[in-house]
Each structure stands twice: as C-alpha cells, then as structure tokens.
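user:
I keep going back and forth on a fold encoding question. Separate attempts, laid side by side, tell us more than any discussion would. Would you put together a sequence-and-structure record for a protein of your own picking? Write it directly below this note and I will take it from there.

assistant:
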Amino acid sequence: MKTIFRVFVISALLLFLANTGHTQTLPYDPALLYSQEALKADLRFIQKNLETKHAGLYRYITKPALTRFFNSLNNAITGPMTEQAFFRLLTLLHEKIRNGHTMFLPGDSAMAFYNKSGRHLPFLANFTNGKLYIAENHSSDSTLKPGTEILSINGTSASSIAQQLLVRMTRDGNNHTYPVWIFNHYFSSYYSFIFDQRATHIVELKDSTGTVRTQQINALPKDSIRYFKQIRYPAANDEKGIVLTEKKESNAAILKIKTFNSDILGSKYQQNYKQVYDSIFKYIHRQKISNLILDLRDNQGGHFEPGRSLLAYLIKSPTRFLLDGDEAKIIQPKAMHFNGKLIVLTNGGSFSVTAIVCACLRRDRRAVFIGEETGGNAHIISGEPTELVLPNTKIKAEIATITYRIIADRNDGHGVMPVYPLLPSIEDMLTGKDPIQALAMKLILQH
C-alpha cells in the first residue's frame, strides 16, 4: 500500500503545530546563530537535492527562474542567522515550487523546544474575505469574544500578517484554498515560528459594534492553551472516521469521511474501511436511499486504496484511477454501488488522495460539487516524499519523488472547482451553521 503524502495531520509539521512533544532531542537554543557559511551550505544542499530528487520541480516555475530565486535567497544571507530566521527564508520556496507534498519543517530539537517551552498567541484565528477574526479564545481572559476582528498584532496589520504567512504555506499549483485552510487551523503556531515568541502581544481589535480597542494578550504555552480550549470548546464525539447519517424526510444520507489514511481509520477510529464501506452501501441499497451527500471537507487524503475502494461504490461504469504508474488501475463498480444523485462537499482541506477521488468523479460527471476548490490538484500530483535533514541547521525537508497524472486535461494548476462555490462566513462558523450542507439538502429537495 502506498501513501502519496505523509498525511498532514500526522506529519512532523503538525507534531510541531499540535502536540506538546516529549521526544528526546538535543538541547535547543533559539538564540543560537549559525554562520553565514553554514547557512549557505544548507541552502546549496537543499537546492541540489531538489534538483536531483524532486519529481515536478519545474511544473510551475522555470529552471532559470528558480535558480534566480535561489540566488536571491543566497544573497539575503549577509551574516549569521538563527534557525528560525533561516526557516523564514526557506519557506518562501513553497510558493515558488507549489507542490503540496514538498515542504520545510522545523528541526526536531526546535519542535520539541517550542512545543514544551514556547509561548503562543492563545486563540484560533480565521482569515476570510480579507479579514482576520478570533474564532476561538484559548486565553485566560474569558472576555475575549470569538468573532472579534483582529486589526493588527504588535503594530503589524492583519493583512500584512496574513500575506507573510500565506506566502510561506505549502500548496498545489495555483490553488489558494489549501494555504488558507492551513492558516485557519494552525495560525497560532505558524505565527509564533514565523514572527516571534514574545511573552505578550499588543493586539488591536474591533468588536461586533465597531468599537476599536487595543489589548495586551499574554502568550501561553501549549498545555495551557489546550486546557482553556478543552474547557470552552469541548471536542465533539469523534469516535468514527467514516459516518453515515440518514435524512429520511429527504430520502437522503450524508456520508462523512474524515480521512483516507487506513492506519488512522484503524488505530484511532477502530474502523476497517472495507467492512465499513460494504456495510454502509448495503444499507443504502436496502433502504432505497436515492440521494447521497459525500462530505470530504477537511479530508487531507492518505492511502490510495481507501479512496479507490470508495469510488467502486460510487461509479456506474468502469473507470480509471490515475493514468500512469503502479496505481493506474481500472476500477469496477461494486455490486451494491450507489446509482442515485451524488453531491460532494469540498473545501481547501480536501487534499491529496481526496482531490484525486473528486477529480475522478468530476471527470466521469458523476457528482455535483459544493463548497470550495479542493486543496489538491485535479490534474497531476507529485508525492511519495523523501525526508532530508539539512546538515547544519537540522531543518527538515520533504521532497516529492514520484508524479501521478490524474486526468488527461491540461493542467491549469487548480483543484476540482465547485459547481456551487460557497464559503461559510465567520458568523456561520460561530453559530454552528453549515450553509454548504444546507445548500446540498436544498438541491435534493428541489429535484
């Protein structure tokens, strides 16, 4: 079984972003300066490995243009730098290479240090329609209300902060929904590593009445942030990774699939995807359900086989899964395949294998798509990353080594585009409304 990407939620990056980290690592000094020679050697190291190992390095940038950019990075190293400063430099390559399975990660010692000893802005942020909002308050100050707009942090405007963070996010091609998705889920950690780790932040805020105020917010360690998050936003029941919810009044059902990673489905959710698929579609057939909403939002992919197996229950005639390589297989419809109306819900977190599943359904004109452009490319994808450690700074690099073509159309650098584009508002998120699912139900009732 192959994985085209070490799924983002379990990658080394998200160990830095989400966990406290207690692994045994070498002592880390955030103020340690690396010599100009050491930094330039690391830059040459990553350039050489990208040029010799990457499967799609020049898909969105020419070789001369990338060489010029490397030269500009080299020229920017005018003296000693900390690992964090050098990391800020390297991550600018994400927007140039534009491959979602290629990325730079803080070194193990840095991740362990910042997870245990670092201080972070204590809120979940949401960037939508050009504005930055507090989505969840994880601070000790309970008066900081979700929905409050952030105008600036430490004198830097919210728009500038968003621009500086988003340009450093990994992405596939010309897609912008995946960087925003990452931003909205992991803003606090990205901000602390790209900007700073100060103990207090001066934040300019605008509340729902339009009143503007400046407030000092204390940064917190991750264990404190997690404590306040659990108190104020207790996690919903997360027992299953594949869930079917029947809507009898509409002769419909909603199939939510959180991941195509078979390891996570087995270890975290105790679900064997083959058995679960079989049981679900037998039930759909038995109940004569004629409308199915497939919710693939926030599903960042995983293994090929769970995605391919799902397609076998959704297609009406034989179809191809990928056009080349070992995974380029013909999928035959299952005996209990679904024949009714299929609506697929997507957003920027619909990445990797999930984007492939969506691309196959769109190619075969099998589904109607609602929501946002998938974060993963709909035409071609490079995965199977190999991990490297830069010799001096110990920053990690994931480099995609194999390319898969999904469909024969010209690659425009985008994911699957929804027929009905819809972005939930900050008010929708705060009140728990789901306008995307609501539109899907409305379309079902209209036909």
Summary: The domain at 242-376+417-446 is CATH 3.90.226.10 (2-enoyl-CoA Hydratase; Chain A, domain 1). The first strand starts at residue 103 and ends at 105. The chain has two domains: 1-235+384-400, 242-376+417-446.
